[in-house]
Amino acid sequence: MPGFPVPERVIGGNTPPVHSTVPTPEFAMIFESLAKNGHEEVVFCHNADAGLKAIIAIHNSVLGPALGGLRMWPYASEQEALNDVLRLSRGMTYKAAVSGLNLGGGKAVIWGDPNKDKSEALFRAIGRFVNSLNGRYITAEDVGIDVNDMEYVFRETDYVTGVHQVHGGSGDPSPFTAYGTLQGLMAALQVKYGHEEVGKFSYAVQGAGHVGMQFIKLLREQGAKVFVTDINQTLVQKAVDDYGAEAVSLDAIYDTDADVYSPCALGGTVNEQTLPRLKCKIICGAANNQLATEAIGDELNARGVLYAPDYAVNAGGLMNVSLEIDGYNRERAMRMMRTIYYNLGKIFQIASRDGIPTYKAADRMAEERIDLIGRVKLPYMGQPRFLGRMRHG
Ligand code: NAD
Predict the structure, then answer these.
(1) Which CATH architecture has domain 38-167?
(2) pTM, rounded to two decimals
(3) Which of 137, 167, 283, 323 falls 20 to 30 Å from 241 in CA-CA distance?
(4) CB 99 within 8 A of CB 315
(5) Mean pLDDT of the chain, nearest integer
(6) pLDDT tens for residues 124-166?
(7) Pocket of ligand 1, candidates 174, 313, 320: which has the most ligand atoms within 8 Å of its Cβ, to mutate?
(8) Which atom of ligand 1 is nearest to the CA of 211?
(9) Which residues does 304 contact at the CB level (< 8 Å), separation at least 6?
(10) Taking each helix axis from N to C terminus, what angle separates 174-193 and 330-337, rounded to the nearest 10 degrees?
């Protein structure tokens, strides 16, 4: 693979040819990856004093500033860190676009162990890099990061959401995500059964964590039958005692005769092994990346199982933090969750309009919106500045 031309000498003196030490093939591969997935900008952030090695990726900013979480993870290699940030930032573009938000997609990763490598200096250093992007990228909490880490980031930049409530932050997004998931579920019930009476159906909820437990509570408030499983037995017991759910074992969750399977734990649980066991008519939950492969999505469609695309269903968390940009308001946040119902409705319409599975329809809806709004934004509507002219004299 051809690399970029390597200068013999740096122009302007006898400075050593620094560029010649750069491994050019990797450079070429990076641009290849960016071109393949349409990324706009990738920033490698390094601060030796703070021990910071981080990558910020802006996938697409047509709709607005690229918002996405900051993840800290002990990646096995640079390549793994880069792959992760490219994949996740692209996912944020689709989530924001399908959710009708004026946001683009971005993400940042710190290459480090969250159990050993955290420090004030580290988070202030990444905060300064985020700030240097002038609002093109807005960061948030993600895996390995907590609200205390965000406090340090916040000391260096305004372009951060998910700060503590004392600073006007939005707090724990989980109740919003759970409520948004309920909206997605109602849209799915409407298209599948022609009504939205949540309590008339049964549910297999996998994962009773922050979102899952709230979701179980909402389902039970409507009188629904709920099966629950979690690797944490204390949480299962809480769902049984507090909300009257029925406990099942980790593996048995795939064999229940529930109408709806609701993954609220891990990704990839709808796969070749589980699909033949699932008896549900709808899949709707908060977990990310529920389908192991696209082929599984095609197979669900062929079997008549209605899949509510995960990134449209679980957008409540993103919607919630997005409101911090204009000044957070809890009531507005709750009202915004209702839009998930309409977004899902549009996805199901596109799926039936184009005769495609719902997971593809969600992507198409996101792409159509970016394309259309991008074109609407094209004509110049600015204010020209006529500097240096004098009307009198
Ligand atoms: P959480 O960590 O609080 O809960 C996850 C729960 O799943 C835990 O209780 C864990 O014990 C359980 N679990 C893990 N592996 C399991 C397994 N094999 N079988 C059964 N249970 C298992 O996380 P959360 O914040 O509730 O998020 C749940 C999912 O929703 C995640 O996939 C997350 O990425 C996604 N999500 C969350 C939000 C949010 O606002 N928190 C927003 C968007 C998406």
Answers:
(1) 3-Layer(aba) Sandwich (3.40)
(2) 0.89
(3) 283
(4) yes
(5) 92
(6) 999 999 999 999 999 999 989 998 999 999 999 999 998 888 9
(7) 174
(8) 26
(9) 281
(10) 20
